[in-house]
Amino acid sequence: MKVEKNKHRATVLRSDGQKLDVHFYLSPYANEHSGKELILDILNSSSAFLPVEDINTGSIFFINTNNIIYLEISERDLEEETLLSREKRVQVELTNHETLDMSFFIEMPEERSRVSDYLNFTPRFIYLCGKEKDMIVNKTYVFSVKDL
Fold this sequence. Notes:
mainly beta; three-stranded antiparallel sheet
């Protein structure tokens, strides 16, 4: 039985500094929430290796999520309800010395709505919103975060 999947384009920054344009394969239905599966869902799943397609060559291989610093995506890939949450501007410094001025949506109870709460109580990959593009960042490669 063939399972229908949607392709979603992203640019991956690997832990060695190389960039790679790929398609992730996403289900039309998410397991953890209503609506379609998101890239964030599969990155934060228990799977260490995810199938991707190299956009330039068309080859399919399995990418080790531990070695992803971040993904750049051109289209917002969040649940509609997330966009109703409180938005927080932050400056993120990565271990490769790159600095990102972006924001994230805090979907947590009021008593746990500080930046530190968000960083400590969210899964390994976090979604950052920017003006031109959004990013999904592996917290393993975050050196520091400043609350703006």
